Backbone:
């Protein structure tokens, strides 16, 4: 529930850029001709946090402590690598980070596959008990 409210907050703050642009900077004239005229920087941070949340969410359902540990390491590595990528490239203020999106998507998919593999094995065990 907290993540949903966080997303609402991010969307409410992120609306400043289109509002400024479509009013010819009558509102938020402060951001005109600055690196903050677009909200790429805001959503690049949000993408990093949201992928980390989804990875952690699916990881929390797993039973295997070893897999949980590896996925936690992947989350930390992902956050460090994405932060370094955003700092060293000029993408932070100029566009959405492809690296952050692709790597985050792959780790989320791996977490989902682990989750569903766990559910499938649990279901198979339940079937053996019932039949």
Residues:
């Amino acid at each position: 529930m907290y993540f949903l409210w966080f997303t609402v907050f991010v969307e409410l703050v992120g609306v400043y850029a289109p509002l400024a642009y479509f009013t010819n900077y009558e509102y938020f004239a402060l951001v005109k001709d600055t690196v903050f005229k677009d909200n790429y920087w805001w959503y690049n941070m949000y993408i990093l946090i949201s992928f980390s949340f989804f990875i952690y969410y699916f990881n929390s359902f797993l039973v295997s402590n070893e897999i949980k540990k590896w996925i936690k390491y992947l989350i930390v590595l992902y956050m460090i690598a994405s932060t370094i990528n955003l700092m060293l490239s000029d993408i932070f203020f100029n566009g959405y980070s492809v690296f952050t999106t692709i790597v985050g998507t792959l780790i989320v998919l791996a977490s989902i596959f682990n989750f569903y593999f766990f559910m499938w094995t649990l279901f198979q065990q339940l079937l053996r008990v019932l039949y």
Summary: The longest helix spans residues 98-130.
